[in-house]
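(Structure overview)
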Amino acid sequence: MTAALLSAMDSAVTQYDLVKDAPRGAQVSISQSTDAVEVAFKKLDDHFEWSLDKLMQQFIIAEPVFIQGYKNARAILDIGVRHEPVEEPTLTPPPTTPNP
């Protein structure tokens, strides 16, 4: 074992120590970003609820279709996450009766 080999191994261990916690750091960063996005959406939702939604009240009588579209756009649809494809239902035709 030479001094150069020991130095190279020590350097490799040092490099490994620097990157071994990188995956956990990435998970923490993603989690913090997700939390920040949730807070931002909550603030935006509060803004809509307290300002824009109130402005829409003036259109309820005159533009009911517009108001319904606005409400539909504001609805939050929780479609979830699918890890497997949804199976399409198999349609069977109704039984036919013979004509006399």
User: Anything to note?
Assistant: The chain has a mean pLDDT of 78. Residues 22-56 form the longest helix (35 residues).
